[in-house]
Fold this protein.
Amino acid sequence: MLAYLGRRVLQMVPILFGVVTIIFVLLRLSGDPVRLYLPEDASEQQVAQMRASLGLDRPIHVQYGIYIARLATGDLGESIRYRNQDVAGIVLERLPATLELAGASLLVAILISLPLGTLAALNRNRLPDLLSSAVAMLGRAMPNFWVGIMLILFFGIRLEWFPVSGRNGLASLVLPAVTLGASMAALLMRLVRSGMIEVMSQDYVRTAKAKGLPWHSVVVKHGLRNALIAYVTVLGLEIAGLMAGAVITEQVFAWPGIGRLAIQAINSLDMAIVQAVVILASVIVMVANLAVDLTYALIDPRIRYA
Amino acid sequence: MPEVRQPQRRTVLQRVALVLLGLALIASAGAQRTLTVAQTVDIPGFDPHNHGLTAVEAVITNVFDYLLFRDANGDIQPALATAYEQVDDLTWRFTLRDDVVWHDGEPFTAEDVKFSLERVARDESLFEHDSFQQIAEVEIVNDHEVLIHTSGPDPVLLNRVSRKGADIVPAHVIEAVGWESFSVNPVGTGPFRFVEWVRDDRVVLEAFPDHWRGAPAWDRLVFRAVPEDATRVGELLTGNVDIAVNFPSQDVARVRATDGADVISQPTTRIMMLLFNTADGKATADPRVREAIELAIDKELLVEVVADGFGVPVEARVSPGVDMAPMKYYDRNAYDPERAVELLAEAGYGPGDLTIALQGPAGRYPGDADTLAVVQVMLNDIGVNTTLESLEWSAYNSRIWGADNVENIALIGLANSLFDGWFALRALPCDGAYAKRTNWCNPEFDQLLADAEFNLDLEERARQIEAAYDIVAEERPMIALFQIDALVGVSNAIDWQPRPDEMIWAFDIQPK
């Protein structure tokens, strides 16, 4: 197991290297951050001065070399917007907010999808199944952005049950987590349903029922646990989608996370920040996928890693 | 014995109740008055010489002071400097207040003025350097008097020391902790001092009781960053914020219909303009074509459609409060489609003969994509074929500054942070920033600007600048469409008029 873990961690390094290189080149081909940053009628002299002070007047391979060399020492470069501030610090400072949102959304998604999907599977083609399928379709169809604003309008402004925006305690986490989790719940619910339908028709489930085991033991221990492999796989894949969806949700709810930072940095071509965010996001996605793989070993005793 | 103990217990309880009641009264009397403002962006830090955004200065202007400060009408008033006089062509004397202390209790002296202004004037890597490089040296006469030496005669020095970038910072603090630390933990002389900054979330300031103007009316000042329009409107409607800037014009009626808040419009210095490529061979090379295009645009209707009437049609880059901007071009709409068709015919173009490319950004300025779309329709109405390209800001910027440049017409919005008419024309000379976009070069224009740049005779300078504006209006390398009004949502619980420089200076804001 440890050897497997070691191999997987080592594999992350070339992947990160490739991602960093691609983003580096793409950013520098995307346009001129200096012109974006200065006023629209700034003089050529001012532009040249700023470009030189940011090191952007050097050839691209020289810039790349400097960047990689600094990266090795943990220096993530200089942000155009956040002058004289540590880039790693700026990005990591916002990480807890996004993790909080992602975690809460995941929880919402799981809490909705598992019971609803199971209910649908057990009542196949009857009313609960049809209702939850309709809900699932709606959930996937409604854009994140729109759901968020609707929730604000109704629960934030009209009923004033929850704060409209900002990160200020548990109450302010509810609406954004529901927004982000709802769409994922819709997808996962269908997975649970199809997984459970397949599993519940298996012989060992019939045996369990025949043995007279209590209902919850049959459904959860014998049924759900075996249906979960596909579920967990998709969950892991969806984590990347969660990071993407968080970008929009954070914007709508003024949630101070990495998504907001990323949008701002991309719009202003703040290269150091975009690169740092991409590195962090890659690490998170890779770690999440590793966690998913390890979870298989927990769920399915047939799976063991060498 | 039991009869004696019971009255004692009741008395103890009574005493406890009285104390609790007293505490509650004290707590409610000491309830903090907090002013909350919702902006679209967060600050990048508290370095006043290095951010460049009006929205950021709107926040940090509460923490720092300048030598001179514009009041709500846009007039320059004394601030850290009580008096000023021009000693000679290159020297100005400023007398400083002697009753000012920094937020850490240290006294403010001339040393701080020298440190602040010389930094921004000399450090080329700073964003604001370009507007202050005209200051050569700040000479300390004594603790409360400085002489500012300029590298050439500077007719707008007073404008310079009263705008963003001229904030005075404490030498003793920055020399001790450095800019990296100061950016996140500032010390100033302003009416509010720093409490905390949660990035992308909020800036929290508290009243500085020893401020030289007196203590402000608010105990706490909070600036929140809420980027989404609908969310910002929501925060105002629920009363969670008292001021919401960049208010979307389509929500004005909705908010005005409620009791709790109103939307106030305030002219800004930002003018929406069209840049022409006048190079030979281009469709917009002929000045008659450019005049026809301007006459084809009904600017009043444009403001009505694009900004719900919150704007003023203009014929040059002028706005109220900007010195030496000839106001004869303000609030003018020369709409004349028949004359436009005539001019096109004179230039040899019948209906359908001419094709013009329109380029502009989308999402950078309020209503920018809509503006271009309306202009397109208006041009089609005079028989001009058009193509439209509305790009996201960074893509648009790369396009017009890159190899492809401007095809025919490019939309741009230009503000005036120096509040000076000369500043508005500085990109147009033959070696100016826009020369390669417009391919327009007029030596007479260049001479007028060169003469006016260092002209301390303000009347003559005004004449020169007006003559330069007239040349631009005649030859049209750029035309102006309208001045943008800022819309600000304001709670009915506060008394405040938004300022023309878009600063949110809380000292002026009063609770009703």
